[in-house]
């Protein structure tokens, strides 16, 4: 009988020690800083092609548009510029699409729907200004092939660079 009583006493003592040991546990704490620096930045998120389609004789204006998506840090001022393109002798006022045979078709890109404000590269003159809001902001480039002497048939293209200055 003494063995049973001793066993119960030992088990009870161990249980009490386990409970009292956890009740008197100590803690320590500290803290740390979390940091992030947001810098002014802009990105061209998208730029759709300017596609004038398929035509025969160019005896009237051919109009189309492109959408340019710009994303800048909130409150960052910026301007969007469009290059003259890769056409030989092209300027922002007289861009040129070129064929494989080096024939050209003249065209222009504008900042306004009435197609009176050429879109170019000179800051505060022919660029599009904006202020970032953190989200993608869309701008429309209005393209026009004006009536002109029609060159030889074939595929004509140009490559225009989009540049954001911020």
TrEMBL record:
Coiled coil residues, start to end: none
Alphabetical list of Pfam families matching this protein: SCPU (PF05229)
Source taxon at top rank: Bacteria
Keywords (A to Z) from UniProt: Capsid protein, Signal, Virion
Domain Spore coat protein U/FanG: 30-163
InterPro entries: Spore_coat_component, Spore_coat_U/FanG
First and last residue of the signal peptide: 1-25
Name recorded for this polypeptide: Spore coat protein U
Species per Swiss-Prot/TrEMBL record: Caulobacter flavus
Organism placement in taxonomy: Bacteria, Pseudomonadati, Pseudomonadota, Alphaproteobacteria, Caulobacterales
